Amino acid sequence: MSDNxxxxxxxxxxxxxxxxxxxxxxxxxxxxxRVVEEVIAALLGxxxxxxxxxxxxxxxxxxxxxxxxxxxxxxxxxxxxxxxxADVTGHTxxxxxxxxxxxxxxxxxxxxxxxxEVNRAPAKTQAALLEVMQESQVTLDGAAHxxxxxxxxxxxxxxxxxxxxxxxxEAQLDRFLLKVVIDYPAESEELSVLRFATEKRSADxxxxxxxxxxxNPETLAKLQAITASVRVDPAVEAYVLRLVxxxxxxxxxxxxxxxxxxxxxxxxxxxxxxxxxRDFVTPDDIKRLAPxxxxxxxxxxxxxxxxxxxxxxxxxxxLEKIEAPRL
Amino acid sequence: MRSLSAPLDTSHHVAxxxxxxxxxxxAGPVPRALAWLxxxxxxxAALLVLAFVASVLGEVGTAVFLLSWFALEWLVPxxxxxxxxxxxxxxxxxxxxxVRDDGAPCTLGPALTRNLLRFADFLPLFYFGGLTAxxxxxxxxxxxxxxxxxxxxxxxxxxxxxxIPTMEPLRPPIALKPExxxxxxxxxERAAALGPARAEELxxxxxxLLRDNTPPVQQLTQYANYLVGHAAx
Amino acid sequence: xxLEKIALVLRSRQGWEAVDLGFRMAMRWARPLWSAWFAVxxxxxxxxxxxxxxxxxxxxxxxxxxxPLYDRYLLFVLSRAVFGATPTLRDTLGASRxxxxxxxxxxxxxxxxxxxxxFNLPVVALEGQRGPPARARRKLLGLRAGGFAxxxxxxxxxxxxxxxxxxxGLAMLFETDVQWGATVAxxxxxxxxTFERWGLIDTLxxxxxxxxxxxxxxxxxxxxxxxRRVMLxxxxxxxxxxxLAARYAPTLAMLxxxxxxxxxxxxxxxxxxxxxxxxxxxSMRLDASESDRDKPPCAADDECADAPYEAVDTPxxxxxxxxxxxxxxxxxxxxxxxKRIESDAEETNDNxxxxxxxxxxxxxxxxxxxxxxxxxxxxxxxxxxxxxxLGVAPTIVTKPPPAMLFGLxxxxxxxxxxxxAAARAMLATxxxxxxxxxxxxxxxxxxxxxxxxxxxxxxxxxxxxxxAKPMLGEAPMSYLTILIxxxxxxxxxxxxxxxxxxxxLCDGYSSLMPSEANx
Amino acid sequence: xxxxxxxxxFGEQWAALDQWIAVxxxxxxxxxxxxxxxxxxLYRNVCHQLALARERRYSPQxxxxxxxLVLAGHHVLYAAPAPNxxxxxxxxxxxxxxxxxxxxxxxxxxxLLFFGPLLALLMAIQIWPDFASVVIxxxxxxxxxxxxxxxxxxxxxxxxxxNTEMFAYYVWNNTRxxxxxxxxxxxxxxxxLFFLLFNGVYIGAIxxxxxxxxxxxQIWSFVAAHSALELLAIAISGAAGFKLATALIAPGLxxxxxxxxxxxxxxxxxxxxxxxxxxxxxxxxxxxxxxxIDPREIKYGVGIGMWLVLLGYFxxxxxxxxx
Lengths: 327, 233, 519, 323
Description:
By secondary structure, chain A is an alpha/beta fold.
């Protein structure tokens, strides 16, 4: 990476576009600025996101708004215990009328795929989806179909209904760049959500028509390229490594994060810096993203789980203890 | 009555986070009354000894006596119940223990709560309130159990370990459903305890399944041997 | 009635568990049970009370003596309900003749010595056995369960007393000047004078007590009896094997099932049936049950009833003992008993002088500890309050401020006296980065040492700003924001600001000083 | 899979878990046991195998064996965490006060029911002195009177052993009253109501009577120091009782059973705090209150100080700034 060569005007334009994108998405997804920022960070980082939150917090809406604002195609798959891999990827059919095989492409052939309640699907369907996520291509009946960039999967899972569901295996969780947790919005924000929802009077859904397209796939590709050239100081890199390595020998964490975690953290921190109009990453960006980038990559030991300590608490503890960069 | 069709039983089913169901066998008023009696006996004995010591020690003795009385009444039973066995000496003697509603061991908080509420159970006299409460609900809970969210259950295993006698395995003439296979296994495990006559009688119930020449009990046991997976014939 | 319809979970239970099942049975079939009870009990009790109005204790004793009478009705209801045919009140009363037919007088005569009454009742009433066979049968059934049966009786007697005294207690709560009946508490007559003291109210309470407890007692005994038979005869297996046979050869098995119909529940109508045969669990029975199978059901077959009962046969008893020594029928348990411990009181009596000195010392110790405790309570309370007023977050223990932060030495000693001047000097020698670093360090030192800001090891620049915000006024805050902004650029973007800005920063440094902030 | 194969394949795991549980429950003779880190894994496996055994209808013996193993494992793994000293300290310093503030409704209700009659009787007896004997039997009043008679005033000189005895008596008696007040809540609050009113009336009448007959200085200087702790503790016990009562009377959307358990947890913390207050009060009442300190104003001062400190604690401790 050529250091510090990002032209000022390019940076300014990128920052501006991103702000517009953020505002645009946030319009439909009130009161969750942090979530919006993180999802955009993952988008720029070219990765997939796992979203966790109880029903009714507008996960679907977020993805719709994001797709609309980035000018991509959107599709949604509701995962159920009886869903088959073919329902996700597509399949070939024999058409008796013309004696030919036709390929029916599944919902993954889109730019933004919302995989709703991914943990309710059996393992083989999850595996099919994750394979697509990793390779960005689908093999149907021996023929490989490349997916058009951008390709982003936003999988949601419901923390309450974990029981009786198929939890994603740890190795597969690792494929998600970020795991974003949607919490209930603050009271004032919840009020505005309520108002927004009731004023529109459009049945029971929030209106996303307000969301204006801000990007097109080409711009997005450019933005992603710019993101990749955001400067990361060696001191910041060292900080990230310290964090990730520490998750492996921190008392209380059963299995720590892989190197993939460190990479994810840096990739998303770059986007966050760009979103803030900076062309360099600060330790603050790292700190801010660490929970989302690491929470699904570590698992607390059984004792702590029984005590009710969560991965988030451990990460917070870790962030307090690990020294921020020294110079 | 939750459902009139479900057969009556005293166990209480709890699903654990691991997704298995535990059967807790809830204990009723009679064993609990006996446990209480044993506890009362040793507590009284302890107080008697203390009273004796106290009379020697004078005022400090009285102080020690009162403090111990306080502890014996309110704290010591709770301490026992929050330990790993979850039982006061009396409950232990009766093979009982206290657990929380979800089958987890009783902790100090619930243990203290249920002990403090003994006072309410005692009302109006001699635990009349507690007895009535126990006779009115399926889990034999007294008032303290309701507030603390606890159950008193049997601690020891439901059955005694027994073996299926090893014999030449024999394939049953028809494919048995899992439920039926289990019955055959159950029979083979318990046949020895039933006495030959009754065992014979039971085994003869399935005469259509049996071959002619071997005694029925032996045949069923052979089937059982086959079912558990000893090499087939 | 068929075993198939049984409304209980059949499994062999340890003694008390069976009793518990009985209690659950009483709860489950409470309505038919108590309606039968009151239908029989109320007329009897009412009539006796009226008859012995002057001597209420006689009424109570007679009601007590007649318990076997009502128990039979309870047992009738239970024995039907257990097999899925809960009788209505009309059914129950209609069956009175059967219910009272067998052995009532015997029960009434022996009730004084029978401590496992409710357990033995099914043998007499349902199996219809009397005399030596009944005795032998009771002995076989009671070998392991007998202790529990007696225990049940004793506990239930106490339960009755609990209810009675409980009711007295309740009455006392509401008792004001109006004395209704003689209560135990305010009677001065000696306790042995029960006959005199027992008032109408006691009789009433006694009636309530037995009405509450007796159905549970009978159900408990019945459940013990059923459990005994599950153990001895493996009913649960019988049931399952019958199903298996039925699947394999439906017609054949039907016949089998029919001829081996369980005899107890249809009980009072057919108790003369084949009862003695299959119940004995004896070795002699093989031929009998085989012949059974070939015969049509002998519901009204007198031949069966007259069949001699062979339970007293020695082989059977031997068999029974062998079975009963199986672990299934109760296990050995280690019993820990309290043993008297020799008191060492004499020792303490030996030396009065020393002891009292010792006691005094202990008491003094208590006193000192108590004063310390009082002091501690007061201090703790004050501390909790002070903590609030000082705005210190709880649970974090005060530590001396760190000397190093982010790898920068920030304790006051390590910094030059006049920070901006030193920075300017560095600037002059071209050490731009060092100059800013010094200013940053100075600012941090100021925050941490002078203003007692608390910074954790993991705090980033953003955290510093956030933490400083509530402490600083507007001017110092904006200065700090600019300073940290520039520092961040230097540190993470390797971008050096021009000298003029650094000079500006040196000039503005004094705005951080507390004197300025307070103004 | 046949049963034997099943047993053969997983028997080692069962034995390992069995051993670990035995060691955990204090069996010291077993040397080799699985490392702690392996236990959750083992336990999950055995749970899984129990489900399989039930599903496949393996023999009752095997199922029961696995069930016992799971049950024992459940008990060990879900056992109570070791008591947490920091948590206890935090409860003392701020948590208790916060809890009391959060339950202000019941606390106020209990306080009114307790302090109301207390003060009312205190006043009433000053105006109509005979009123005291209506509430309390005259012989009891007379006994009280002799206890605090200045003729008998050797309270200050009484030996340490008497102090200790009285301390123990106060712990035994007063804390029990608190527990009764709490437990009475389960009777739809009637018990709590009764004990609060009864104690309010009783204490009010005694204090009022003693003051009225001119023993004011003795009684007030004795009572001053511990009054704050003791009286507030009674009120808080009452509040805990009313928590149980609310669960029964107004469970909201929960079942009464669940409401009882949930409210019971809060009530337990309240009564726990109250018990500690009773204990502290007993320490003061046993050892400090009987001291004769000249001038008496010092003891009054201490008493007022305790009230202020305690009220301050309940109003402010544990509040975060700006909250």
